[in-house]
Q: What sequence folds into this?
């Protein structure tokens, strides 16, 4: 197993983020929303870990807790700056103690229309993190900002413009430049392309991939779109009600899903090929249960079509898949005995040549 | 009917005469202009479409291409002063009586109010904002039934219950008295569909019906819409930006770019043999669950031009890998393809634009 031998960049140990539910005049706590409920995960240097799940599964909370925008209720966030350095637990640190680590872990938000300050010029938006991390020379800063703009496919002409002058795709490029300004090691991408048009989505995905190749970032890519996640991730973790139910290499998880929830997610991805329509009988019914009162036993059991008596009573933990060749973890009591449907193979049927009725014009 | 009382202009007359009996809705040369501070914006610039009985017609395009405005024009939801009255014709064949051009009707007149909702219903994108938070969902469904049908409250409530059952809401007797905020996004969208289905409309306009939903819930809603369509023989105009949703649902597809339909084809032809460079670019830029995970996406270069500064000639030429000198001067007219669709691109048109103008 990799994470025992190598020393991961970031390691989450039994991480919990519970939000209190308060009621009445006295704001008495009557319960907790278990947004993140006991997650163990390790991130290798240079990998892209995709986190997928339905809304409300805790994937965004998990991402934000890694950057410590949200405080962890319990558990550890172990960060190793260098392979041979000692791990630091970020979870108990206060804002001041966190400062030296802030530049190493950055985040890109979903909505580029609300994540940029409309009153600042592009230069100031991107220069802010530089200033905060001690780059005080104005001309150095300006040079660095120009360099960053070029790296994300914009130009220095855009320095003095305001965010509202840009389209959604361009704004997301600015947000990416801001995240990269301080040369982070880990970048959390929280649904970075879901607010963008299809043609622009592809541009931003390619940009993120190119930047990773150039600067060697580690990405955590939070998204609900499985085809996007498959495209960019090297490993995928599937979340359900605050827990990881399956985690494996991208290839493995799409070809050989072991958890019924993963199977259901894969079956719901719409295909652009009208000759291959989805099988309604394999679709997942119902909705995500209330995370304040998760069902007993396996949390997925009420919606699972393979559930047995035991599933409703015995809670499952993530464990290595028996007999699997690769590093494949799954939290299902019946794993291995089920034969689950793999993802549909989608391919473009169009050829690179234009159709035969195209006219050749001189 | 209204059209007998009004003088019929030749445009709608032409559209009506050219309408086949299996066509239920025919849009011809639709233009919608918005006046903005920065000048007029032609949101829809000569769109022609036809919806057949029992068909799902997909309208696909990026934001700002005019697909939503086209949908809203059909039930006359756009009003002055932002939007000028749409030009062109939208002929609808009602259940009883002669075809009418809805653009010739009074926007809030009796005939239009009869068509809107009762014969042509709409499902909106945001189930959160399109239901009112202050009434129970039952009341909201009953409101439509009481407006359009001659029934008493008890009967309307019974129909509302039946509708909730039909759209797959469990425990409808209990849910009918709940408020929208007590429901999940998928459940609210089911309520929206229930409202749309009340009074059995012939045409359903679904504007991004699943965009705000999770994949799993999206799949449920798409399956529901497909089920309902086959049971009711109604037609659906499905507006979306998602080629996956199009692939799952549509029988034929119109691809829109900057206010016009650049390609129209049946869905299999569009998928296997897309002609317009924009359509081809869209297909190439979507990530698919393909065999090869690491392949690079091929985005369309650049971004959609500002609506105030539409390029001369073909509006796509600034992003098109096949742009030729002719594209800059002349806007390509639609031509019929071998597969029976249409495409607006000089690559498929061998007439000489210089000679024809």
A:
């Amino acid at each position: 197993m990799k994470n025992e031998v190598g020393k991961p960049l970031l390691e989450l140990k039994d991480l919990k983020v519970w939000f209190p539910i308060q009621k009445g005049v006295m704001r008495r706590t009557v319960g907790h929303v278990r947004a993140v409920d006991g997650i163990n995960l390790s991130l290798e240097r240079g990998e892209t870990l995709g986190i997928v799940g339905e809304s409300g599964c805790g994937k965004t909370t998990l991402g934000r807790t890694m950057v410590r925008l949200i405080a962890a209720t319990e558990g550890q966030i172990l960060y190793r700056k260098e392979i041979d350095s000692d791990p630091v637990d970020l979870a108990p640190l206060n804002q001041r103690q966190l400062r030296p680590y802030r530049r190493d872990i950055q985040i890109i938000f979903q909505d580029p229309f609300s994540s940029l300050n409309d009153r600042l010029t592009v230069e100031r938006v991107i220069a802010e993190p530089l200033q905060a991390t001690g780059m005080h020379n104005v001309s150095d800063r300006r040079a660095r900002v120009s360099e960053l703009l070029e790296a994300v496919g914009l130009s220095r002409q855009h320095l003095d413009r305001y965010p509202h002058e840009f389209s959604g795709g361009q704004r997301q490029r600015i947000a990416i430049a801001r995240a990269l300004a301080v040369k982070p090691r880990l970048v959390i991408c929280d649904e970075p392309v879901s607010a963008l048009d299809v043609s622009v989505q592809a541009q931003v995905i390619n940009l993120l991939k190119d930047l990773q190749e150039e600067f060697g970032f580690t990405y955590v890519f939070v998204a609900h779109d499985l085809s996007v996640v498959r495209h960019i991730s090297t490993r995928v973790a599937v979340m359900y009600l605050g827990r990881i139910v399956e985690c494996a290499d991208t290839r493995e998880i799409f070809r050989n899903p072991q958890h019924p929830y993963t199977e259901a997610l894969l079956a719901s991805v719409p295909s652009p090929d009208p000759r291959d329509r989805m099988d309604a009988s394999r679709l997942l019914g119902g909705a995500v249960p209330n995370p304040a009162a998760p069902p007993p036993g396996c949390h997925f059991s009420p919606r699972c079509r393979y559930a047995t008596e035991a599933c409703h009573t015995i809670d499952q933990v993530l464990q290595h898949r028996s007999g699997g060749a690769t590093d494949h973890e799954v939290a299902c009591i019946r794993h291995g005995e089920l034969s689950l449907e793999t993802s549909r193979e989608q391919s473009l049927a169009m050829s690179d040549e234009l159709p035969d009725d195209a006219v050749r014009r001189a | 009917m209204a059209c007998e009382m009004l003088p019929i202009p030749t445009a709608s007359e032409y559209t009506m005469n050219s309408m086949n009996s299996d066509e239920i809705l025919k849009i011809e040369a639709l233009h919608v202009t918005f006046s903005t501070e920065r000048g007029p914006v032609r949101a829809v610039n000569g769109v022609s479409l036809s919806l057949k009985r029992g068909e799902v017609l997909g309208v696909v395009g990026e934001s700002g291409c005019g697909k939503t405005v086209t949908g809203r024009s059909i039930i006359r939801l756009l009003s002055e002063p932002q939007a000028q009255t749409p030009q062109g014709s939208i002929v609808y064949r009602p259940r009883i009586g002669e075809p009418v051009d809805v653009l010739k009707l009074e926007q809030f007149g009796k005939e239009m109010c009869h068509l809107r909702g009762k014969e042509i219903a709409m499902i909106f994108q945001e189930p959160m904002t399109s239901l009112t938070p202050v009434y129970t969902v039952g009341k909201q469904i009953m409101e439509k039934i009481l407006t359009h049908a001659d029934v008493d409250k008890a009967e309307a409530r019974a129909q509302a219950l039946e509708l909730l059952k039909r759209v797959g809401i469990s425990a409808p007797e209990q849910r009918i008295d709940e408020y929208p905020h007590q429901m999940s996004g998928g459940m609210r969208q089911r309520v929206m569909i229930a409202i749309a289905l009340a009074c059995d409309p012939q045409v359903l306009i679904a504007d991004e019906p699943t965009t705000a939903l999770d994949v799993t819930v999206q799949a449920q809603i798409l399956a529901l819409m497909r089920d309902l369509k086959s049971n009711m023989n109604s037609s659906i105009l499905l507006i979306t930006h998602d080629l996956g949703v199009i692939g799952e649902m549509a029988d034929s597809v119109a691809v829109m770019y900057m206010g016009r339909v650049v390609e129209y084809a049946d869905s299999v032809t569009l998928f296997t043999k897309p002609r317009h460079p924009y359509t081809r670019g869209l297909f190439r830029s979507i990530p698919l669950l393909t065999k090869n995970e690491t392949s690079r996406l091929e985005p369309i270069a650049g971004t959609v031009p500002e609506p105030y500064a539409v390029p001369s000639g073909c509006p796509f030429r600034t992003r098109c890998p096949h742009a030729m000198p002719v594209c800059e001067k002349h806007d390509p007219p639609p031509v019929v393809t071998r597969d029976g669709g249409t495409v607006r691109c000089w690559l498929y048109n061998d007439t000489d634009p210089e000679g024809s103008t």
Residues 256-361 of chain A form one domain. DSSP finds ten helices and twelve strands in chain A. Chain A touches chain B through 60 residues (CB under 8 Å).
